[in-house]
Design a protein that fits this description.
heterodimer, A: 246 residues, 46% strand, B: 406 residues, two-stranded antiparallel sheet, 16 helices
Chain lengths: 246, 406
């Protein structure tokens, strides 16, 4: 074997494994979506809202089927019996003492949930991130000691709540450790910080995260999932308007 | 001298009348404008104290600072607060209210409204609901019923007996919604309330907003001729001594527009001065013309011994008679027109539609004789003083110069 041939073989052996680790931005985002979407799920948790008037805690129980059907029922005293049903892009509110369901649409979706930094619009996320955004891999960066891919998402249309998103995605577990939501011109609107994670099956998910409204002083919302079960049987009727009124 | 001046004034009646009319128009216009402003002030006072603030309003002392966030959690224990307020002298009555932004839903339609939770029994000292009710009845005590402004009901196609749902942010910072039945329709004299007004039982509002027995406002009615700002201080002190963090404000300190009306009146007196000066230019011009016309006569009078001072006084007197006549005519017409308008009313419904102003749609200017006479006197004085210029000119005429005109 000539010296040149040996050299080529060595180079090929070194380079061969590299394509396995060189993920594209789209692949990274798809992996994040895959790991955060379950066939079905049932969770209980708390939302802690902090603003200029102090702190308040709300508790909830939530069911989801895929990424476009979810039902949240509030169990804390101030909101007892209130429910939010999401089916695709439609959002319905149920209040025990109201005759009718309140359907939120248009500008009403931008209202905040329980006075938190989370809006109803935030709850109507697309099935697939790549359907609504173009992804660009900016590089890698460490967040809280974890290596992360730095991804920029740019909205494909003007109807998205956040025209630009900057995500820091854990290179090992594909959980979003940090996110910044911004306008087209780059003005930062909200920041999400991952505070803790939990294992569910063979994936790591966000257990506690903090959403900070960058446009307000001292305003943030902490969401904490206390219990989560996945892939159990959930009837479609659970996500129906008829069931909402019961 | 007086008879001479009067006779000279009547020598050319048409010209004198024309000069007088210039003053008359100015006097009449200012009387009408001030009457309108007075009626706006009275109307706004009535509207504010009836529908919005009472003579004095009490709130949590942080509420106004955060008002843009509708901070329902900054509220008052109504029973305790009203008990303390009742001990203050010059207080006739008080009533609790909760004013809150909400979203009114009927089927798929929704509309933002400013709803007000009231105790309809205690409100009889403030809003005469029976008088403004056009259809149906007031909500039954303790029931989930509402009365709607007639315009709001028409916009949403609602009538008595129909159901609607109110969605609002609560005092616990969440949201809540309750469905209500429309029990009646009202037509208050304020356009804004007709188009967007919604009143419900205080107990229903407290349940919707999770406020127990609390309220955001307590409105207070005072005895007549009470110094409201002093009363507000007294009430505030009494509340603080009773351990309640309340802030009491007299209505004129709450509403900026009302304060502006008082300033506007002052501005109108300045406008009046400008009007009268402009009207006086007619007299100045005419008197100057008369001086040149009567040059020979002036020369003759001076040759016969009339002093410069008496010559000047003669022309000033002539100016005074014309001004007085003009002021009198303007005063008479102004009073008559104001009286007619007070009966007919000025309808600003179209002009005020869509504008949030605490004022009735129909204004009735009120005749204030004292103000009208003052305006007339003011006009007369300004016009008379303005004849100083041609009068001094007449006084300076030399006999030799005047005799050239013989």
């Amino acid at each position: 074997m000539s010296r040149f041939t040996k050299f080529v073989i060595i180079i090929l052996l070194i380079c061969a494994p590299l394509p396995l680790f060189a993920l594209s931005a789209d692949e990274i985002v798809r992996e994040v979506d895959r790991r955060s979407t379950f066939a079905t799920s049932h969770a209980t948790g708390t939302i802690i809202v902090t603003d200029r008037f102090g702190e308040r805690v709300s508790t909830f129980e939530a069911w989801a089927k895929g990424s476009d059907k979810s039902l949240i029922e509030f169990t804390s005293l101030a909101e007892r019996g209130q429910k939010i049903l999401r089916v695709s892009q439609n959002l319905y509110l149920y209040y025990p003492e109201a005759d009718q369901l309140i359907r939120l649409q248009g500008a009403a979706l931008r209202q905040s949930v329980l006075g938190s930094d989370l809006s109803y619009e935030d709850m109507t996320k697309e099935k697939s991130t790549l359907d609504a955004y173009r992804a660009t891999l900016e590089g890698t960066e460490a967040i809280d000691g974890f290596d992360c891919y730095r991804i920029t998402l740019t909205a494909k249309s003007r109807k998205e709540a956040y025209p630009v998103q900057h995500l820091w995605i854990d290179t090992q577990d594909f959980v979003i450790r940090k996110a910044i939501y911004a306008t087209e011109t780059g003005r930062e609107l909200k920041e999400m910080q991952l505070l803790s994670t939990m294992h569910v099956g063979d994936v790591l998910i966000a257990q506690k995260s903090k959403l900070i409204d960058l446009l307000k002083r001292n305003s943030h919302t902490t969401m904490h999932i206390e219990q989560l079960e996945i892939n159990m049987d959930l009837a479609d009727s659970l996500f129906s308007l008829e069931n909402l009124s019961w | 001298m007086i008879r001479l001046a009067l006779r000279n004034t009547l020598r050319n009646r048409r010209r004198s009348l024309l000069c007088a009319l210039a003053i008359a128009v100015s006097v009449m216009a200012i009387i009408l404008l001030l009457a309108l402003l007075d009626s706006m002030e009275d109307d706004m006072r009535h509207t504010l104290t009836t529908y919005y603030t009472g003579d004095v309003r009490v709130r949590h002392d942080q509420y106004t600072h955060y008002e843009r966030y509708a901070p329902l959690h900054l509220n008052l224990e109504t029973e305790r607060a009203q008990a303390i307020i009742g001990t203050v002298s010059k207080v006739v009555a008080s009533a609790p209210r909760i004013t809150f932004p909400s979203s009114l839903h009927v089927g798929d339609r929704n509309r933002p409204v400013q709803a007000v939770g009231v105790d309809f029994i205690q409100e009889r000292h403030f809003i005469d609901f029976d008088h403004i009710l056009t259809e149906g009845a007031l909500p039954d005590p303790g029931s989930h019923q509402v009365v709607l402004g007639l315009g709001l009901a028409k916009t949403l196609g609602l009538g008595v007996g129909d159901r609607l749902t109110l969605l609002a942010k609560t005092a616990m910072h969440g949201t809540n919604a309750i469905s209500f039945t429309v029990s009646g329709l009202i037509a208050p004299p304020v356009g804004m309330l007709v188009a967007n007004g919604l009143y419900l039982n205080l107990s229903s509002a407290q349940r919707l907003l999770m406020m127990d027995t609390k309220a955001t406002d307590i409105v207070i009615k005072a005895q007549r001729a009470t110094d409201l700002q002093l009363l507000a201080h007294t009430i505030e002190d009494a509340l603080h001594q009773g351990g309640i963090e309340g802030q009491a404000s007299a209505f004129m300190d709450i509403n900026e527009l009302y304060g502006f009306l008082a300033t506007a009146k002052l501005i109108y007196w300045i406008i009046a001065l400008i009007f009268f000066i402009l009207g006086s230019t007619v007299i100045i011009n005419t008197t100057m013309m008369v001086v040149y016309e009567r040059m020979a006569e002036i020369g003759m009078m001076k040759a016969m011994g009339m002093s410069d001072r008496r010559t000047s006084s003669l022309f000033m007197l002539e100016g005074f008679f014309i001004s007085a006549a003009g002021a009198a005519i303007g005063l008479a017409i102004g009073i008559v027109l104001t009286f007619i308008l007070s009966k007919v009313g000025l309808d600003f419904t179209e002009a005020l539609s869509g504008i949030e102003m605490e004022i009735s749609s129909i204004l009735r200017p009120q005749v204030d004789l004292v103000t009208a006479v003052l305006v007339a006197l003011f006009g007369m004085v300004i016009a008379t003083l303005s004849t100083l210029i041609p009068s001094r000119r007449a006084a300076k005429i030399q006999i030799v110069e005047a005799l050239h005109y013989v």
